[in-house]
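FAQ: What does a multi-protein file look like?

Like this. Sequence, then tokens, then the next protein.
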Amino acid sequence: MRARGTGSEEDVLERIRRAFGGLRLRTGRDGLRSKASSRFLSLGMGDDAALVSTAPGYEIVLTCDWFLAGTHFLQDNHPADAVGWKCLARAVSDIAAMGALPRCFLLSVALPRELAGAWLDDFLTGLRRAARKFGCSLAGGDTTERREVLINVTVAGEVRRGREVRRSGARPGDLIYVSGCLGEAELGLRLLRERKRGFSRRDVRLRKHLYPGPRLGLGRWLSEKGVVSAMMDLSDGLSSDLRRLCDASRVGAVIQSELLPTVSVTKLESNRGVDPLQLALHGGDDYELLFTVRKNKAKRLPRLVDGVAITAVGEVTRTREVMIADGNGRSGVLESRGWDPFRKSK
């Protein structure tokens, strides 16, 4: 990162350098190794730009994501370390959806002067934890002062050439799968908004919203085994993201509602109108994987991959419609009601 302007920005940059200067990436079950990451990043923070390199036979994968106060997080509700964790996790989830592994990232952050101390330190603590967990080094970025918090993260990853998974490979007859449990993050957001006295980090019903875990191990396994025909991550909700996958593949789909892995709700929440099916269909921020598999390869799929459950929830069709059916044989069009920043509020 290159310092510009006053010494106050230099102080922000120094906090970032200190936070990441001693970062050592660990080897995990998903094969993230510090040696591979250090090879990818030839020159990191401290110069005008970073230098990256990749091994022969590999492709570089690039993605970026905004994380904005008031849009993607609530400054009065979300702890700063969760903001740091999640801003990287969101972008890394796109890497996982390609069957790739993240290697380094760029951080651009704008924030008011009053948050450039303790809040920034907590933010960097969460970001550093995420970087270590995902095997991803900070390569550089930019900083500036602004009244509201604006964060942009760009992640560079790599995937073996020919093993990248796109949205456009689904074909009629393919089975549709999702990972994990859908609707957990949306339920967590609702619970967080209701809390008057903060939250406990031991509350597991909040963790998926605050500290999501991109499915890197699962994405890489599906890519390396060659069993998946199309894939993307579930960031905006199944009803919206499934339509995007179908549009890219020029196909349709039918989802069986009774097969969806839904979140458990309390009796009180149910009485308040919290519907697990609606959360699973339209809730965002789960960062699970949505993927399709040829029927003749479905038997090769275990129930768990890297500790994550995978569930068959429907089938790809020739028609371009995206449908939902229930156990009684009734069906209808599945409307896209997931997250859309440009949709007008009703």
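And here is the next protein:
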Amino acid sequence: MKKVKPNRKMLAVNKTAKHDYFIEEVFEAGIVLTGTEIKSLRQGRVSLLGSYARQQSDGLFIIGMNIKPYDQGNRFNVDPLRPRKLLLHKKELKELNKEFQQEGRTIVPLNIYINDRGLAKMEIALARGKKLYDKRESIAERDAERRMQRMKLK
């Protein structure tokens, strides 16, 4: 697992991922994009809401990520919801596949950004779904922490 450098331009964040899942392990992956997709992505016209990763025969793909068509793209624009291949090392793919086979595990995108070299990268996480009572517990912990912070400020 690579350490993510702080000098990156954040494009989209999946806010519901940490609410709906227990994040177990985080990976950094590259994305295979067309020319108009990267231009639209640089404008921040991307949504990760409802997207997930799926292992297929020829690699790991992100499903449901919406990159809006580029305004000046005309005929070169592609389907905004098409599956896009994620680029990982073989070792990471094997580890993800092994862990993914266990019951209740999924691979969710956390955020997408442009790194210092100008390449589009995505943070994906191996996650386990939360039950309703787990979500309530997380909300209660967050509220208690906020109350503590308010009390310190007064």
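Q: Is there any per-entry metadata?
A: Some entries carry free-text notes. For the entry above: The chain has a mean pLDDT of 85.
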